User: Fold this.
Amino acid sequence: MTWFKNLRELLGIQKNEMCLCMVVSEQEGAEIWIDGKKTNYLTPKLVALPKGTEVKITVKLIGHKDHTAFVRSSHNLTYYHCNLERIPLRLIHNEVYKSAAL
Assistant:
């Protein structure tokens, strides 16, 4: 007689294993996008990702350049940290005035 640990094993159903990834940015409150899809998560946040599969994580914050990385982990817990680069602001008043005069 064969013993099974659970019903899933008895039926031969493969469970998609997940790992937890802590997504952190130096500038808190950035949006977290996973595989090009917006989530409702803001940094810092612990998110579930498929274990052993490469996942595209993009962190976005207004006034900063987007930061994208590809994360793959075979562990139960992983960590992703980024420092978002600020978009430099500059005055364009004179440039707009000159181009309007032409």
Q: What stands out?
A: Residues 16-101 form a domain with the Immunoglobulin-like fold (CATH 2.60.40.1120). The beta strands are 18-25, 31-34, 37-42, 45-50, 55-60, 67-71, 77-82.
